[in-house]
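Lab meeting prep.
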Amino acid sequence: MWATDFPQQFSTGSFMKVTVLFFGKVADVMGERQRVFDLSDTSARLFDLRHSVLEPAFASGALEVQRVLMSVNQALTHEDRALQDGDEVAFFPVFSGG
């Protein structure tokens, strides 16, 4: 058999790694402080990652979406954005200070 005789079952898309950090109550609920994700979709977006990672905690009431902040590469953000290979995403609770 020639290589061209096999069906095209395998993706030739790119993969990227994104490190996700959890802090405070988010870490307590998730039961971990860090996880590395291998994302097969190079058009991955921040809000999609938040949804896939934290949705069970939101659905159970353990976390409230409006009380979880996000940062990408240590820059606080409220906006959805495309993620890049090697990005560091953090989810953490709303904080206060004075």
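Slide two material, second protein:
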Amino acid sequence: MESLDSCGKPVEKGSYVIYNGTGTIGKVVDIKSEDSGSWIKVDKTDLWYKSQFIQAINKSEEAKIGSKRRKEDAMDKVKKMKKTIGEDVDMSTELCDGGG
């Protein structure tokens, strides 16, 4: 049985996919078919995803999306840190001089 993604494209071992629910991107390491449908195992999470909820992408898209996601994750971490602190911290007067 051929495994198809949410757009009807075939999915094979070694191809790159994105899980629509969380945006997880990874390489297909295994595929299994059952009466309920096809399942795709992704290397990044080592989890099985139902093929109807994933989308096949090419390797260049994987790199582009992954880079954008890392930037967004970094920005989210900074925002959370600022919320925890409760204010912006100005360290310009608290820095040590490294003079000699």
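Talking points for slide two:
The two ends are 71 Å apart (CA to CA).
Residues 16-85 form a domain with the SH3 type barrels. fold (CATH 2.30.30).
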